[in-house]
């Protein structure tokens, strides 16, 4: 198939006209540029959010760890998470692919199956993109567009001393899932089937890596409270994202090890490997949950409100004055710290996480 036949094969009939109109699409795929307008029925002024993310074969994925559909899902999900981290609503996506000869039409069709499944799940209208050839590896670049109330976007720069640090889900699961997949997939080029992960007790870890679930609804509920002071998504690792908030806000974040959320499947798998799960929690990345800060007065009420909606919110530390940085507070074994309090020790966390150019 030539370029234009390929585009039609990947995209035709994927989204109903009603879905596109609901997201303000006037002209979508098939012209020189898409035309969109603010979705109907919105009250008050809106601002646009724009984010772009790129996935490169052998850097972000390979055929032994992820199926084609998983790649498509994750390529869009990473962008949806960026919009959620600003407190926004995802609306549109532009998808550019650079395709090598090894990715025949059926493989690319499956990639778009996953991408459109993610788009439908989060209400995103796919409105265009670009297609080129590639000499060796597949490259998928997605530009996502969202909206947020004017002046309501939540940045990394608003954390204040006295705020409470939170995350909207367990961390480290994606990294643990990748660890298992790399070990299980050593003997072949096909993606390790989920049934094998289920048999090994690592299915939730594998799914966290292959099909992350951005915290879109949680972000909107928290943003509506007006008490969230900073927000970031955990793409490069909890330590790295915490440092980004600390640096942007000129504060210190103190995280408590005992309060970091550890899933049972992660703890069990780490134990079976003789590894410390803390490394995955702090430095794993690609969890796409949200890390943020909230006023101390509203931390507990917000946690209760989230629980009432069936969504987790873990309070994992506090914001302190001082030079920008991140500390981990551990409860020491043995002697207490006086007045019945456990003895604590504090250690700095390095701004280590995934970095393409480290």
TrEMBL record:
Location of region: Disordered: 330-358
Misc remark: Reaction mechanism of ThiL seems to utilize a direct, inline transfer of the gamma-phosphate of ATP to TMP rather than a phosphorylated enzyme intermediate.
Domain PurM-like N-terminal, chain residue ranges per copy: 30-148
Pathway in which this enzyme or protein is active: Cofactor biosynthesis; thiamine diphosphate biosynthesis; thiamine diphosphate from thiamine phosphate: step 1/1
Short name of one Pfam family: AIRS
Protein name per the record: Thiamine-monophosphate kinase
Domain of life of the native organism: Bacteria
Ranges of compositional bias, category Basic and acidic residues: 341-350
Family affiliation: Belongs to the thiamine-monophosphate kinase family.
Ranges for domain PurM-like C-terminal: 160-323
EC id: 2.7.4.16
Binding-site positions, Mg(2+) 5: 236
Binding site for ATP: 112, 129-130, 156, 235
């Amino acid at each position: 198939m030539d370029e234009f036949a390929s585009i039609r094969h990947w995209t035709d009939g994927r989204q109903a006209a009603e879905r596109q109109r609901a997201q303000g699409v006037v002209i979508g795929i098939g012209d020189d540029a898409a035309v969109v307008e603010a979705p109907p029925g919105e009250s008050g002024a809106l601002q646009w959010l724009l984010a772009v993310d790129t996935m490169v074969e052998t850097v972000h994925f390979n055929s032994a760890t992820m199926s084609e559909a998983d790649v498509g899902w994750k390529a869009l999900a990473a962008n949806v998470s960026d919009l959620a981290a600003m407190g926004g609503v995802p609306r549109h996506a532009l998808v550019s692919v650079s395709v090598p000869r090894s990715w025949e039409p059926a493989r690319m069709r499956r990639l778009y199956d996953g991408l459109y499944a993610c788009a439908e799940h989060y209400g995103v209208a796919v409105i265009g993109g670009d297609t080129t050839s590639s000499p060796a590896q597949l490259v998928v670049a997605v530009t996502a567009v969202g909206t947020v109330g004017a002046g309501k976007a939540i940045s990394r720069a608003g954390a204040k001393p006295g705020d409470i640090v939170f995350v909207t889900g367990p961390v480290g699961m994606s990294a643990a899932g990748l660890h298992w997949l790399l070990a299980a997939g050593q003997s072949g080029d096909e993606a390790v089937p989920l049934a094998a992960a289920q048999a090994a007790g690592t299915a939730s870890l594998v799914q966290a890596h292959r099909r992350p679930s951005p915290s879109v609804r949680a972000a909107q509920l928290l943003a509506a409270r007006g008490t969230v002071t900073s927000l970031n998504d955990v793409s490069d690792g909890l330590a790295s994202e915490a440092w980004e908030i600390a640096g942007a806000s000129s504060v210190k974040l103190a995280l408590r090890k005992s309060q970091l959320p550890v899933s049972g499947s992660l703890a069990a798998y780490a134990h079976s490997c003789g590894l410390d799960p803390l490394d995955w929690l702090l430095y794993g990345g690609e969890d796409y949950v949200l890390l943020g800060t909230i006023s101390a007065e509203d931390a507990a009420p917000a946690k209760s409100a989230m629980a009432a909606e069936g969504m987790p919110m873990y309070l994992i530390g506090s914001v302190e004055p001082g030079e920008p940085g991140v500390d981990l507070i551990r409860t020491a074994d043995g002697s207490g710290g006086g007045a019945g309090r456990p003895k604590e020790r504090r250690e700095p966390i390095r701004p280590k996480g995934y970095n393409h150019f480290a």
